[in-house]
Amino acid sequence: MTAIRLEKVCVRGLREIDLTVADGELFVLLGPSGAGKSTLLQVIAGLLAYQGRVFFDATCIDRLPPHRRRVGYLFQDLLLFPHLTVRQNLKIALTHLKLDRRTRKARIDELLERFGIARLAGRYPIQMSGGEKQRAALARAIATEPRILLLDEPFSSLDTDHARRLRTELKNHQRHLGITTVFVTHNWEEARQLADRMGKIHQGRLVADGDYPLVEKNAMAQAGESLTCTAPRTWGRRWSVTGA
Amino acid sequence: MLARQDFPGKVLVDTLIDLPMTMTPLVAGVGLLFLLGSDGIRQVLDRLGIQLLFTPWGAVLAQVLIAAPIMTRTSRSAFASSDVRFEQAAQTLGLKPWQVFLRISLPMARPVILGGLVLCWARAVGEFGATLMVAGATRFRTETLPMAVYLNISSGEVGIAWYAPGC
Question: Is B140 left (phi over 0), alpha (psi -120 to 50) or beta?
């Protein structure tokens, strides 16, 4: 698999982001709405022009267009193609792998089974529930055999129980595939359940980066401090707990 | 391209495409007649063995000139209103730009484009002024539907003129 390294990445709303995500790690990026989380994912996927440098392992990929970066991207709105069935959505994700028809069909069947959506293969997105669409979109993102998986608040529209169950499934898939993953959320509960390591982003700056308990502890300390001073000021302060 | 990209001269291209829609068809037809009849272009067409003026192909050209802007305008608004994030999603799935266009953008815009095609066809079928100027009104040669009505009315065959649109 692949490690990600960002060096001084600047783009609309993001200011000099330095970030490293280790090979096979599930990194959770936490922050309030408008903090720049999704923008950071778009930078990694190559969907936005940016300043700074992005590396996959030791290779700088700044000049690679999105279709050559081999990044699996699960968008917040899922973006399953509405004119295609689930099977066709998966088939289109396998286009660039240039598989023969039999191998492609076997691969699609395996994905449908693994994500528990075999019975939905012939359905269009509009005929599916929120949870079913999440599974189909995740299967499609993984179908491309990506080096990196980017997940943009994929469970934010689901009820708590359903979201928890899908998070467990996601964690299992991620462990099974050993794929380097960046998961964006504004939900501490999601971060706690998923993170191998996490970062906190606020107003375009990475203000914390470390293991979950330490980031949470620092955040709580900051929140406590904020009760005796002006609350918003503490969000913007930078600290590092990596290796603490 | 007109819907998604900026390039030098975009406004000019846009205006030129829309121009026939804003002009009286008769005037557009006169313009096309003078253009195709000018020495330079006529010589080139003659050398290529292409006859346009006062032929059925001239009628087709006049209809395209008048109706094509409807198609361009409809397609443009179809692509401009479709969610660009679907195209981004397709790119992250490894699809090259032309594959994204053929397999995602075009099928998603298809209903609006089909609507535009119907409008375009209806406009072309009913085209009169420009066709008259470029192709003339010759029975059984450049006799489009409106031309048939015109020819029959002018020769006093009112019954046939009424019958023609119904055939």
Answer: left
